[in-house]
Amino acid sequence: MSGWRLYLNVGNSTAQAGVWTGRGWAPVLRGDTGKALELLEAVLRLPNLPAEDPDVVAACFSRPDREPWLVTVEARLGLRPLVLGQDFAAPIQTCYRDPRQLGADRAANVLAAVAAGEHPCLILDAGTCLTADLVGADGVHLGGAIAPGLPAARAGILAGAPHLAPHLPPAQGISAPAGAGVDTAENLALGLESALVGTAQALVDHLQQMTESPAEVILTGGDARLLEDRLRGPAQLRLELTLEGLRLAYEATTLP
Fold first, then answer.
1. Which helix or strand (DSSP H or E) is residue 125 part of?
2. In which order are the strands placed within the sheet that holds 141-148?
3. DSSP H or E segment with residue 159
C-alpha cells in the first residue's frame, strides 16, 4: 500500500488532479483536459510523493468521451480509474426528477458542501458551463440551473461570428478593461466577463429566494475567481470542492 490516492476532476475544458494522503491534500494541479499525460506527469513530480503508484485512482467526468483519460491513466499508473456515477455514487438526496441526469461533478459539489455543514447553500461552478445547485437547510439538493460559462460563450462567438476570432481573449486568463472597451478585443473581453458575472448574479437573486434563510454562495470551477469580487453579497471560494466531494463519495461507498 502506497498510502495515497489520486482523484481526478475532468471537465470539458480543464482538469484537476488532487493527491490525498490521508492527512490532507497535496497541492492540487490543473491542466488542459486534452493533455492527460502531462497532468499525470506533473502529479508524479510533486515533492514528498511516495515512490509507489497510488492505491486508487478515482475520477469524475463532465464529458462523455472519458475513454482517452481512462486508457492514459491505466497505461501510466497501471490502474483503471474508478468513475463516479458508474463504479460508485455520491450519496446525496436530490429533487431531480431523474437523478441520473444530475452531473457527477455537481453531485460531488453538493456532497462536499453538505458534509461540511454548509447548507442552505447555492453552489456556482464556473467552468465550461456555469452551473448552479441549490441545497436546502435539510441538506437536500433542490435543483439548479445550467448556463454558458466563459469557454462555452467564447465557443459560441467562434461558431456564430468567426470573423471575430482574431480578437477573442484566450480561453484562460481573460482580462477585461476597467472602463469601456476601445477596440474589438476589449469589447469582447468586457462582454464575455460581464455576461458571466451578470448571469451568476441573476441566478443568485433568483435561487436565494427559494430557501427560508439566505443560502450561502459557494464558488468553484476554473473561472470562480472572476466572480469572487464581482457578486453582490458574500461568497466563499472553494476551488477543491469537486475533488473533496469525489473523495467523500469514494470513501462513503467503497471503503469498509
1. strand 121-126
2. 141-148, 129-135, 121-126, 216-220, 236-237
3. helix 150-160
| Pairing mode, strands 56-61 and 5-10 | parallel
- pTM listed for this prediction: 0.94
Q: What is the CATH number that goes with domain 5-83?
A: 3.30.420.40
Assess whether the region 5-83 and the region 89-256 belong to the same CATH fold: yes
For Cα atoms 90, 101, 29, give the angle at the middle one, nearest 5 degrees: 55
Under CATH, what is the fold of the domain 89-256?
A: Nucleotidyltransferase; domain 5 (3.30.420)
Q: Where exactly are the structural domains of the chain?
A: 5-83, 89-256
Residue 129 has pLDDT above 70, yes or no: yes
What the block records as the C-alpha cell of 159 is 461558431
Instruction: Tell whether the model's pLDDT for residue 90 goes beyond 90.
Output: yes
Residues recognised as catalytic: 105
